[in-house]
Design a protein that fits this description.
Layout (H helix, E strand, L loop, with lengths): L1 H20 L5 H9 L4 H10 L4 H10 L4 H5 L4 E3 L9 E3 L2 H13 L1 H4 L2 H4 L12
Helix pairs in contact: 2-4, 4-6
């Protein structure tokens, strides 16, 4: 019994440390989270709960190459009430999901981390023949 208690406390301590670190809601963080996720719905829920813009999540998913059908199956919702006494959520409509997805497909450089998009070339590049 003591062994189980110690293991439980260690796990709880590890979870609280992981939660205290927070979730990276930058484009780089969203890209890394989505591309390394084994459970996209849980990842999206975590990103939204940490303050990531739902449209940005969808656009980054599109730029990362996640299929539209997979993204359409996700519930992208955020709590719209500032206090915990009222439970209400606003979810992205399918039309908004498709619009955000199109933004990511049409402008991937905006929604991909610099490492994924490649190095940016200098504007002072001169052609030599």
């Amino acid at each position: 019994m003591l062994k189980n208690t110690i293991i439980g406390l260690a796990l709880a301590g590890g979870l609280s440390v992981a939660y205290a670190e927070g979730v990276d809601t930058t484009v780089d963080g969203i890209f890394t989270a989505l591309t390394s996720s084994s459970n996209l719905q849980a990842t999206v829920d975590s990103l939204v709960a940490s303050g990531a813009n739902p449209q940005s999540i969808i656009s980054v998913a599109a730029a990362a190459g996640i299929p539209l059908d997979t993204v359409k199956d996700l519930q992208v919702c955020s709590n719209s009430a500032p206090d915990a006494t009222v439970l209400s959520a606003s979810c992205l409509r399918q039309r908004s999901v498709v619009t955000a997805y199109a933004a990511g497909v049409n402008d991937p450089m905006k929604y991909l981390p610099a490492t994924a998009a490649g190095k940016r070339q200098s504007k002072d590049v001169t052609k030599t023949n």
